[in-house]
Write a structure and sequence with these properties.
single chain; mainly alpha; two-stranded antiparallel ribbon; 6 helices; 35% helix; TMOD; Tropomodulin; cytoplasm; tropomyosin binding
Length: 176
């Protein structure tokens, strides 16, 4: 089983493995050597020659959209700031309570009155009064008990022939 390493926009096998991935050419070379010719010791040697700032730049150079990296490594670390002072929970809680008490509440659209319930003025419009029926029904058909299966099929065929196109589209949407 070959070990695989991540490189920007390509995956390559560890030296000595039999699988060949990536393309051959100048993008697969480090200091004029092919990736297969570079040993882990050579990479460690190159990394040891870098300064701390260069290592930090190299560490921050990654693709945040790469799904092969764990989510914790897709973003730059942003917590390098030194603490501004010791953590005092009581003072923090007191500050949050004082800030909340002094902050003005937002305006309510319906003022609060104790013991009353909100009644919507547009309640009639929301219940569908005046709403157009999407499908028109012909209620002047004989009783369902008196119809045989063939009569029901004939009634359905007639209704479908008389139905406007938008009603058929609505019916097709309902039936799937």
């Amino acid at each position: 089983m070959a070990d695989f390493y991540y490189a920007e926009e390509q995956t390559f096998a560890a030296p000595g493995s039999r699988t060949q991935t990536g393309t051959t050419g100048p993008t697969n070379k480090i200091y004029g050597k092919g990736l297969k010719d570079v040993d882990d010791g050579d990479i460690e040697g190159m990394l040891s020659k870098l300064s701390a700032a260069e290592l930090e730049d190299l560490n921050n150079d990654f693709d945040p959209d790469n799904s092969m990296l764990p989510p914790s490594q897709r973003c730059q670390e942003q917590t390098s700031k030194v603490p501004t002072g010791p953590y005092k929970r009581e003072r923090l809680m007191q500050f949050l309570e004082d800030t909340a008490k002094n902050e003005k509440d937002w305006d309510e659209t319906v003022p609060y009155q104790r013991g009353t319930q909100f009644v919507d003025e547009n309640a009639g419009a929301s219940k569908g009064i005046g709403m157009e029926m999407p499908i028109e029904f012909d209620l002047a058909t004989p009783d369902d008990d008196e119809l045989s299966v063939e009569d029901e099929e004939i009634v359905i065929e007639r209704a479908l022939k008389k139905a406007p196109e938008n009603d058929l589209v609505d019916l097709a949407g309902i039936l799937g």
